[in-house]
C-alpha cells in the first residue's frame, strides 16, 4: 500500500506531497493524520529552511474525501454509526486535524503551496495557510463548500479574509465560482503562475533561495508579519524592535561559532 504522504528533502527544502492521486488527493482520515504529523516534524527540524506542499498526479488537493464523508453521514441517518461518534468527538478530531493549517501559517520558515492541479475545499484552505502560492497554468480553483451545504474548514475563512479582504472572501465562498490559474492570479488566490512543465523547477528555485537565508532572521520576520494581522501599530513597533535585536544577536553568535570552528581547525 502506497504512503498517503511522501516527504523528501533536498537543499534544505522539504517537499510534502499528498499522495492519493486517484481521488485528486482528497483528505481522508489517514491523510489528515499524516499531514499533521509531517508539518509538525518539518516545522521543528532546524535542518529544513523551507517547506513545499503539493499533490501527486493531476491534483493539488480536492478537499475532503466526499465518499468517506457521505458514508459517515449515511451511517448516522441509518443509526449505524459507532456509538463513540458523537458531535463532541467529531469536533475534537477535526480541530486536531486542522492544526496543520495553523502550523503551515505560523512555522518559523517559509512555506510554499505548489499547486499542480485541482485545488478546492480544504485544499484551497491549505494553500491559503502557506506563505506563497505558485500555480501551474492548468490548475483549477474553487471553494466548493457552500454548494454542498458546508461552511468551510482548515482555517480558510480566516485566512482568505486576511489575504483577499472581506468582500472578495465572501465572493470566494458564497458565489463559489470556478477559476482558472490566470483568473485565480487576477483574483488574488495565487502569487505566480508558471507553465505546468516549469512549475516544479521554478518553485524549487525560489524555495532554495528562501532556504539559504539566515534562519533566525526569517523566523523573526514571519513572527512580525503574523502578529501584524492582529496587533496594533505600537505593539508591532515593540515587537520589531525586540526581534531586530534578537536577530542581530543570533548573527553575532553564528559568527562567533564560525570563528571558533575556524580557529580549532587551524590549530588541529
TrEMBL record:
This is Enoyl-CoA hydratase. It comes from Sphingomonas crocodyli. Pfam families: ECH_1 (PF00378). GO terms for molecular function: catalytic activity. It comes from the Bacteria. The lineage of its organism: Bacteria, Pseudomonadati, Pseudomonadota, Alphaproteobacteria, Sphingomonadales. InterPro entries: ClpP/crotonase-like_dom_sf, Enoyl-CoA_hydra/iso.
Amino acid at each position: 500500500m502506497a504512503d498517503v504522504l511522501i516527504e523528501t528533502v533536498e537543499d534544505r527544502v522539504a517537499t510534502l506531497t499528498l499522495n492519493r492521486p486517484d481521488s485528486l488527493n482528497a483528505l481522508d482520515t489517514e491523510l489528515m493524520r499524516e499531514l499533521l504529523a509531517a508539518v509538525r516534524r518539518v516545522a521543528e527540524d532546524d535542518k529544513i529552511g523551507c517547506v513545499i506542499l503539493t499533490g501527486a498526479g493531476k491534483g493539488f488537493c480536492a478537499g475532503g474525501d466526499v465518499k468517506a464523508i457521505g458514508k459517515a453521514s449515511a451511517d448516522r441517518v441509518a443509526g449505524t454509526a459507532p456509538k463513540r461518534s458523537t458531535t463532541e468527538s467529531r469536533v475534537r478530531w477535526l480541530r486536531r486535524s486542522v492544526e496543520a493549517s495553523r502550523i503551515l501559517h505560523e512555522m518559523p520558515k517559509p512555506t510554499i503551496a505548489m499547486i499542480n492541479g485541482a485545488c478546492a475545499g480544504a485544499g484551497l484552505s491549505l494553500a491559503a495557510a502557506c506563505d506563497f502560492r505558485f500555480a501551474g497554468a492548468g490548475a483549477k480553483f474553487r471553494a466548493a463548500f457552500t454548494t454542498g451545504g458546508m461552511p468551510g474548514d482548515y482555517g480558510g475563512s480566516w485566512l482568505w479574509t486576511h489575504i483577499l479582504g472581506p468582500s472578495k472572501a465572501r465572493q470566494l465562498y458564497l458565489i463559489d465560482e470556478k477559476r482558472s490559474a490566470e483568473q485565480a492570479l487576477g483574483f488574488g488566490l495565487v502569487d505566480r503562475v508558471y507553465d505546468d512543465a516549469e512549475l516544479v523547477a521554478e518553485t524549487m528555485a525560489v524555495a532554495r533561495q528562501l532556504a539559504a537565508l539566515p534562519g533566525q532572521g526569517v523566523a523573526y520576520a514571519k513572527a512580525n508579519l503574523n502578529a501584524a494581522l492582529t496587533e496594533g501599530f505600537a505593539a508591532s513597533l515593540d515587537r520589531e524592535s525586540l526581534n531586530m535585536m534578537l536577530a542581530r544577536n543570533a548573527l553575532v553568535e553564528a559568527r562567533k561559532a564560525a570563528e571558533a570552528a575556524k580557529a580549532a581547525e587551524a590549530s588541529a
